[in-house]
Write a structure and sequence with these properties.
alpha+beta; 4 helices; four-stranded antiparallel sheet; 2 domains; 8 strands; about 25% strand
């Protein structure tokens, strides 16, 4: 008997179907061997696939939403899924089938549907009942995002060393102010050479 868990958020629902890994002494009510998943979004066709599709699709939604939050150009493209903004409120999602001669599924979703879908993915990630293998962040991050990251690193590498040097110079100089007092020197001179 396969286990089935559902994660809901308003207009989206994610269903995970699979088995526990008995070789790892897991409980009967857990899933770590995912055989199928289904994503249902209100008024949209059913999206389903194998485990190897779930990770890349989740990564795509996370990277795309991250670009939106950072006010970067929101576009994500891969062999399996493309997401880009139609305007401020509508996002085009193109799901490409791994089977030959199957047309891609094109969805237009609003901000609320995007948010609800990501919330379902968050619930899945946080669920103790379902174990999914964590994938490394994909290497096919859009070039514009990679360029932005490199630009920020170069900026910090260029300005941080002079900034640290100036701060150390100020600290070093200020320590001499506390050690050297001109009033003490005047008093010493008066004591040595009284007039």
């Amino acid at each position: 008997m396969q286990n089935k868990f559902s994660f809901h958020q308003s207009s989206a629902s994610l269903e995970i179907i699979g088995l526990p890994d008995y070789s790892d002494n897991e409980n009967e009510d857990q899933i770590s061997i995912i055989s199928q998943w289904k994503l249902t979004i209100v008024d949209k066709p059913l999206i389903e696939g194998k485990i190897e599709h779930l990770g890349p699709i989740m990564d795509a939604f996370y990277i795309y939403s991250n670009l939106l939050l950072k006010n970067e150009i929101p576009i994500y493209e891969s062999k399996l899924i493309d997401i880009k903004a139609d305007n401020l409120h509508i996002h085009n999602v193109v799901l490409k089938s791994s089977k030959p001669n199957v047309k891609p599924l094109v969805l237009k979703i609003g901000n609320s549907l995007l948010s609800d879908t990501i919330n379902c993915f968050d619930q899945l990630n946080e669920s103790p009942k379902v174990k999914i293998k964590k994938t490394d962040m994909p290497t096919n991050i859009p070039k514009k995002l990679r360029f932005g990251l490199k630009k920020k690193v170069k900026f910090f590498n260029f300005f941080i060393p002079p900034f640290i040097a100036i701060c150390s110079l100020i600290l070093f100089s200020s320590s001499f102010i506390y050690l050297y007092s001109p009033f003490e020197n005047i008093e010493k001179k008066e004591q040595i050479n009284p007039e």
